[in-house]
Amino acid sequence: MRVSVVGLGRMGRGIARNLARKGHEVRGYDVSEEAVKAASVAPCELPKCFEADYVVLALPTGKEVLEVLRSAPATDAVVVDTTTQSLSELRSVLEAARGLKYLTCRVERGPKDAEEGRLVLYVGGPRDLFEKASGFLSQLGEPLYVGTHEQATVLKLVSTALLVANTAALAEAAEILRRFGFDQEAAVSLLSKGGAASAQLNARMPAMLRGQFSVGFSAQQAEAVLRQLQELAEELGVEVLPVMGKVRELLRAAAAAGIGGDDIAELVLYVRSLNVQNPHSPRR
Question: Which keywords does the record carry (predicted)?
Fold first, then answer.
């Protein structure tokens, strides 16, 4: 199968490597030559990328998606757009995608999962096109048909917002557990048996307790998604989001302090910086 991946950042690079490892003919495009080299796939010029069976878009925002689609030649390729974007961006993208076989494909999980083919995919678009592409999408992970392009996009925004808010709360809890001296593995194991159980508890709290962070989903990226959710909420007449508003403030403050550039699990470091320990405290 011939596949082109347009956008070879953290997620796109993982997707490209996964597909190449599975024996597909993979080419890639990125504005950065270094990104193309790091993906270890054959480079292609942007118009030529559409000479493929599938074109995967993994771009920073809807703005870049628009630029790519507006320059796309006539093609029979199925365009799988994994780019996280706002609903307003999506509307413009759908106009530009007229005449193309286009699927919205909002992805869950991170770069490591992309490289291992373990993403969760919220897919929107024509049902028959989804069914035709399901074999390919299964190479990326678990494809879940949501319905319309808009429904897949909104579900992704809500899912990510819940992930970020949960991680912010976990950062505070992790600092409490660390100062108390709780065994790291025991804390996560025990919490996962009760009402605190969550994907982020298992995925990010161990890193918070160890103080060792991998490259994943940055504070800047998280804040951008919450901003997109706020725009959607306002459009629907929900103008005040008290919790998400506070989390956005936290993310902006952490980023301004140089924290969270690799992953939002680093929020624990910002919480720690706000709570300089009393040297006379019995817990250290």
Answer: NAD, Oxidoreductase
